[in-house]
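Holo prediction. Input below; ligand is adenosine-5'-diphosphate.
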Amino acid sequence: MSPSLESRHAVYAGSFDPISLGHLDIIRRGARIFDRVTVGIGVNPDKKSLFASEERLQISKQVLAPFDNVDVVCFEGLAVTFVNSCGASVMLRGVRTLTDIEAEFTMSLANRVLAPEIESVFLMASEKYTHISSTLIKQIAEMGREATAKQLADFVPQEVIKPLLAKYHRRSA
Ligand code: ADP
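Structure of the complex:
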């Protein structure tokens, strides 16, 4: 490992569109393992996201404010390049299913070729959050009616609910 990289600094990169209770669980657990966790919100102009990168950043900052050793930033380009630019040596990932594991395994091998000094560390999703994905959250917000805010509380942090519903139902804003 390069002496300039911090071995106790991990980067958790993703789209966080929006940040979910599953993401939060991985961040909470990562923050107990590592001295510092940087959450990297990937900005991909070619990929349509529900929330603009600035919105994802603001919401994630609110959600993660209670964590002293967690910071949030946006990044463009390859995740490994971002990890390197942070001076971190670990890429933190969460895995929910066997499909996730397969995809993450291939990705980590590619990342190892690109940046051999960076280690990928995988945390298994907690069973109560395994079913949560950003796609499912958006479907519930879009299709649901009166009880949606209460239902969404099982999927996303409180700070996400209002802005999420506002994306689909104008009068919820
Ligand atoms: P999503 O797959 O929901 O769009 P991201 O692309 O933002 O989420 O994923 C970032 C990281 O978080 C990935 O390692 C992904 O496997 C992990 N992750 C996503 N949802 C969960 C969850 N419910 N529990 C644990 N890890 C998760």
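The two ends are 48 Å apart (CA to CA). That is the main takeaway for now.
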